[in-house]
């Protein structure tokens, strides 16, 4: 069975003797008696079955009986140390670094009995190959290196995105860990079969440090798919930047850490292409992109078709909604909604916005006439009521 590890016992050859044999002669013709101190058994070392590869989700455990472990060293296939922890009583050692598929780990264990005699054992533990196993990765979004210098906005959910569908959601969720400093409430929620997000009832506090882990290597994700490897990431939340786009006034009001710092005219989606309502989270920013309405079904020759290069773009949904520079609609900005769902700004205002807003920052759209942003549309997370979000959706 995948995931089972069998232990064998390796005992040192030989025994340790204390004292010596002696013959005492007393009186004339008296006979002596021989006394022998009982042998103290050598310490025994219990190790994983080296004959059968183990699932990497099963830790390597080395244990001692009749004595205690004095040292255990382990190395990875490339010769690097495999970290582990020796229990205070010296009876067990377990690896703390995660294992990988198709790998061999060299281990040397030393144990000593009460008489000071050592038992030493060298062995190799192999993990199962992925040749005949389906695996999936748990990717983190956003990629940590993308936001390493800037940090993330207060609206950014923590995201693990699996490369294959997960059906054992409840079990997998037990292997997802998060630490938040300062502490804030939060919960995991399965947006779909591949994406699980974590957020709280409110946006993150500025300055929050977040560490997330998916300890899923070798874990049964369902339908015969195993976790390919563990993954983790660290994030820092920068200042709170929230833009409130009001379709009834056509004004975009900017707040930094809760204080209004700017207000600018804008144009939202026209009645035929209304912007989604609700909090939107910026997922990407580019100095320019080519916008082609054909990607959303309105192609050349049809009414409303467009294809042009647009500057200072910040994506707020995968449904084609951006905050961007729109010099062609400056005359309507502040008075009417004429876009195809985007937040249109003048070039100067778009530059101001682009210089300050980034991944994880929030654009809240109201009075647009559009439907609520769906939870599955990149980061529609904040549309889900907190009570519903807390339920986790793992069993749906």
TrEMBL record:
The active site is at residues 324, 342. Pathway: Cell wall biogenesis; peptidoglycan biosynthesis. Signal peptide: none annotated. CDD domains: LDT_IgD_like_2 (cd13432), YkuD_like (cd16913). The keyword Acyltransferase applies. Residues 241-366 form the L,D-TPase catalytic domain. It comes from the Bacteria. Pfam families: Big_10, YkuD. Keywords: Acyltransferase, Cell shape, Cell wall biogenesis/degradation, Peptidoglycan synthesis, Transferase. PANTHER family: L,D-TRANSPEPTIDASE, L,D-TRANSPEPTIDASE YCIB-RELATED. This is Ig-like domain-containing protein. It comes from Nocardia jiangxiensis.
